[in-house]
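User: Modeling request: complex.
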Amino acid sequence: MSFGSWIGEPVNWVFLALGLAVLVSGFRVVTSKNVVHAALFLVGALAGTAGLFILLSAEFVAWVLVLVYIGAVVVLFLFGIMITRAPTGLDEGLDSERKLGPALLSLAVFVMLAWGSIEAFGDNAVATTGAPTATEILGGALLGRFVIPFEAVGFVLLAALVGGITIARRDLTPLEEEERTSA
Amino acid sequence: MIANQFLILAAALFSLGIYGLLIRRNIVLILLSVELMLNAVNINLVAFESMLNTSDALGQVFAIFVITVAAAEVGIGLAIVLMIFRNRRSANVDELNLMRW
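Assistant: Request completed. Predicted assembly structure:
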């Protein structure tokens, strides 16, 4: 498929806009000198990804992404940033000085993945009918064919909840324990 | 739309995640980079689902599983970060060299 015929489809302009937003936000996430800004740029990257999912007629997954990631995970990150009192202003010590090796490695990974997908899939079209995938299908799959993994992942969430509380809880020192029992 | 445009975008996002993972020193920022990589995988899964059109929407189901596990991972990860910060007064991975040989 030539670039001319590719750009002729209006839906690809939407893709270009969203993809560019995702990439720029993602780049700022890994390069920003301000910790809070990095977390907020993650919101941009995730919102762009949700837009791409809607483009791919995966509406339910898009809103799950918005609710779980932007609604919960990023808030959790902001709490983590505040609690660890990471400097909220500019900080030069945030990055390692050795950047050339990681840059080359990530470039090599990108070239490998991109080349592989071009070789493997060529011009394979994604079939979007415009109508979103029925949530009924997803629900049927989750509670039918994938009910065991679904239960397992629920158990993982419960274990993470209990584990998170157990790890983050501050244990009382022996002195405090004594004060509490005597009071 | 062709599948490759999504796959290449996801590859770029994944590489950015690897870059961030390797150059960042602050643990919270490292976790942010991991989220970027998981997100790239989600784009791949949903794009493959659109390409193959399976009857059960398998790609989207797997994307939901990835999102769930990522949420659990962030919860545990930040709890560990909190614990480390409380003990060491630092969220810098270069200073956590107690177990380095």
